[in-house]
Amino acid sequence: MTAVHAETFPEAAVRERARTGAAAAFPPLSDYGSALLGEPQAPSSPDALDATRLVPPVFMPLRLEKLIDLAREPLHNDVDLATTIGGFAAHLPLYLSAFGSTRAVGTDLGLAAAAQAGALGIPMVIGENVVPVDGYSGERSLLARITAYADHAPTGVGGVVIQQSTEDADAEVWNRVYSDPATRPLLESGRLGFELKVGQGAKPGLGGLTVVDRAQAHRLADQFALEPLIDPSGDRVLRCASPGTFTEEILRQQVRLMRNNYPRARVWVKLPPGRDVAAAADVAWQAGADAVTVDGAEGGSGWAPTTSLAGVGLPLAECLRRMGSPRGCLLVSGRIWEGLRAVKCLAAGATATGLGRAALLAVDEDRHAGLTRLVEALTLELRLLISALGKYHPAALSTEDLWSPAGWPVPAASMAGARG
User: Fold this and answer.
1) Sign (positive or negative) of CA dihedral 94, 62, 78, 150
2) C-beta separation of 142 from 182 below 8 A
């Protein structure tokens, strides 16, 4: 797998977690009793979530309630992480973010990630363009990923959510999945969903960008915008797809159409980190979406201009700030790889957080157990941190648990909305 091109993404730390699991959540054991430990070095380019701290209270009435219930002092392993995510029962407040047809996923990374996510009991999103690029069935196909997940998922837990781009729509991907006997067990157990992709996460406002050879570009000339300027003396051409056009009414009708056409499937909506993300999320929830997913601008991406990746779109913290108290299930991602950042997102209103680049790096490090070990470390951190706040379920978290130098701008009292 190609290295991750992001200065602030800790690839080495993620790979260490994929190798050693929960042990990587602590300083080296060799330091125990022989070194003075303190705050680790801050990221070179901290964002608002990095700068925010969790702030446990002195008085913890929920801990007292738990003590009375258990007839003993509660411990971190008494934290219940089971969460309903977009209509799916999940063992953890985590989901596997969308991997599409990008070559970075590799021949076996997508299948390995699917199998481990299934075994972990967390939902998985399959990204766009898998069918047009890799086919519906076969070794790298959409159906292969679905099957790998379903074969390893515990009964009644988790779920598979499938995105559909314009090209996927031409291939009738949702129709094929919904009517396929191979996916019937997922459908009948309520563990199949479709995600309407309104925009790209790390490159909002742009459609899919792919590099093709000139012969292929000639065949696609009537369907896409083509830019040969990226390789003027070579054979490669930039193929640019439309991001699609949405208004409030178009989004509302799309969600209703999905509900009518696929009544047994969950409906998710993927939003870009746009300036009106809060209004768009409200439209989706009011139209009946089971979940809204938002990738902050710091999330991973496929091919895109470096200027877009560096300076377009809202950071995840600002998306959370603008969304305030979510009306429904809010799922977020953007440089999530350890428990601290995940808990901050949960306290700010998210129901669950997504693993994207971190999951791919973990699986690339170990095809059989890398993601499992990464989640093992993250799970321990989630339990320790939530317990430290005197709470025992992610849904109990709120902005009262957050502090930032500028002050977290969402009042704690406004966080009473539905989450789940």
Assistant:
1) negative
2) no
Query: Of 218-232, 287-301, 324-338, where does mean pLDDT reach its minimum?
Result: 218-232
Instruction: Answer yes or no: are the C-beta atoms of 89 and 155 closer than 8 Å.
Output: no
Q: Residue 291: CA atoms inside 13 Å, Cβ hemisphere, count?
A: 29
- The Cβ of residue 285 has, within 10 Å, a number of other Cβ atoms equal to 20
CB proximity list for 292: less than 8 A, separation 6 or greater? 268, 269, 270, 271, 281, 284, 285, 326, 328, 329, 330, 331
Instruction: Give the closest residue to 263 by CA, choosing from 364, 178, 153, 389.
Output: 178
Q: How many CB atoms lie within 10 A of CB 292?
A: 28
Give yes or no for a contact between 197 and 299, defined as CB atoms under 8 angstroms apart. no
- Contact yes or no for 415/325 (Cβ under 8 A): yes
Q: What is the DSSP string of 356-406?
A: SHHHHHHHHH-TTTHHHHHHHHHHHHHHHHHHHTT-SSGGG--GGGEE-TT
As a whole number of angstroms, the distance between CA 339 and CA 380 comes to 8
Of 115-129, 138-152, 163-177, 313-327, the poorest mean pLDDT is in 163-177
Alpha-carbon dihedral angle through residues 105, 49, 161, 156, given to the nearest 10 degrees: 110
CB 105 within 8 A of CB 135: no
Q: CA-to-CA distance for 253 and 261, rounded, in angstroms?
A: 12
